[in-house]
Each structure stands twice: as C-alpha cells, then as structure tokens.
Amino acid sequence: MAKRNHAKRNPHPSEADTRRGHKRTRASRRDHPQSAEILELNAHYLETAYSPKRVKTPLQAKTPAQKRYINAINNHCLTFGTGPAGTGKSYCAAALAATALESGTIERIILTRPAVEAGEQLGFLPGAVDDKFAVYIDAFRDILNERLGAGAVDYGLRHGRIVAAPLAYMRGKTFNQKTFVILDEAQNTTPAQMKMFLTRIGEDCKVVINGDILQSDIRGENGLADAIKRVQGLNSVYVHRFERDDIVRSGLVRELIDRYEN
Questions:
Q1: How large a percentage of the chain has pLDDT more than 90?
Q2: What is the pTM assigned to this prediction?
Q3: If you average pLDDT over residues 94-98, what whole number do you get?
C-alpha cells in the first residue's frame, strides 16, 4: 500500500494564505448577501442597543414651579408633589435622588407605588416579584439610567443600593438615615395604605410623595388627598401644587388636559 504524504499544517499562516482566506470570505458574502447584511446589522445594534445617553449636567428647573418643588425636596423631610401629568414631579424627584446617591449624600434609593392598573387588567405576569413589578417602575428606571448610567443602575439594583418594590412590601420597614424614598402614583393609595407608608419614616431620611388627585384609579377617597388634609401645618412637611401652566411635557398635553377638564 502506498504511503500517503500528509503536509504539515503551518501554525503561522503566510501573507498569501491570509489573502486567500479573505477572498474566500468575500466570495461567501457574495453567495449569501443576506447573511452578510444581517451580520453587519447585528454588529451595529450590539454597539448601540441599551446605551442611553447619560446626562451629566446638574438638574435644572424648567419652570418657577419646578424650582420651588426642587427647593422643597432639598429642604424638607417630607414633600408632597401634586398636579397634572407632565409637570415633572417624578423626573425631578428621581433626578435629585440619583444625584444624592452618586454624591454619597444618601446610601439607598427606594422606589415604590401601589400596584394598581390604570383601567385595564394585565393578568398574570411571569417571573419573581421584581420581574412583575418592573413594568410599574420602567419610567423611573429610564430617569435613573439617564442620570447615573445603565451600568450603575443595574449594579445598584443587584446590590440593594436601589430598591423597587410594591407599596404593600413597605409594611414593617423603617426608612432610615441616608435613604431617599419616592412614592409615585400616590393617588391610587387608600387612606390606610398612606398611613402605613407615612409611619415608616425614620430620622433624617428624605421622602417624596407624588400623584395627581384627579387621576385616581381606585374607588372612594384616595390616600393622597386624605394625607394632604392631615399634614397641613406640620414642620418638615411641604405640599407643592403644580398647575396646568406648569406642564412641560408638551403644549399638546396642556391642550388635552383642558379638553378633559372642561
């Protein structure tokens, strides 16, 4: 039987071999142009997806009302922000919390809201509690991503520096020093839920409660309206009311609110 000669494979390809490899790749792309386009498209998205532009400039008030609201949060233990959608209640509170966390003024941000759906039933949501509640705090996560960067927000969520939980999970907790707590959509709390939440407040923490009393999705008196009546005259508590003219989201939102309220 004749012996077969096996050429030894060169572990270091020559320049000629490299050129032949490139030719084969180009030929393959010509044979499968759609695959090449998909690869290039995927590479583009890998570089751009989930990379929100981070805002590094300090928070600037867009209206005199926002300026008063920001000053109130900075100077009071408990601040209520009420008024129509689009006035910046949630954005200002979340941006101030992000700045405080980044500077070390606080050690933890707690985001909470009642898990009440706005007039529609979403049904069963898969996953653990964090996964189920994620749909309710997406807007806050967008703000934190913008202010801190998506990587820092993911790190904070994994290590307990940023906590997002339904209002029902606040029972038994104490909001300690160096904690910034935001209760959003507070018009959907009951008076009993609001009482439970307010009695979690410890020493030297920062608490912001936001909502629009006119957009409650629950029956009966809501906890936000009830609480505002009860806290009048208390030290370290400030109630800030935004008006229709304070809407900054868009001129169209102002006009739509006019149509719905008139």
A1: 50
A2: 0.74
A3: 96
Nearest-Å Rg of the Cα atoms of the chain is 27
1-32 in b/e form (b: 16+ CB < 10 A) is: eeeeeeeeeeeeeeeeeeeeeeeeeeeeeeee
Q: 9: number of CA atoms within 13 Å, CB side?
A: 1
CB 206 within 8 A of CB 180: yes
> Residue 10 corresponds to which tokens in the numbers above?
């060169």
Distance from the Cα of residue 111 to its chain's centroid: 9
Strands laid side by side in the 108-113 sheet: 162-166, 108-113, 179-183, 206-211, 78-82, 237-241
Angstrom distance (rounded) from CA 178 to CA 189: 25
Name the residue among 200, 244, 242, 209 with its Cα closest to residue 228: 209
CA dihedral (15, 19, 20, 22) in degrees, to 10, reads 140
- Specify whether the CB–CB gap between 95 and 147 falls below 8 A: yes
Residues 162, 109 contacting (CB under 8 angstroms): yes
Give 43-90 pLDDT, tens digit per residue. Answer: 444 444 455 578 878 899 999 999 999 999 999 999 999 999 899 999
Let me know how many helices (H) and strands (E) the chain has, helices first.
10, 6
Identity at 85, one-letter amino acid code: A
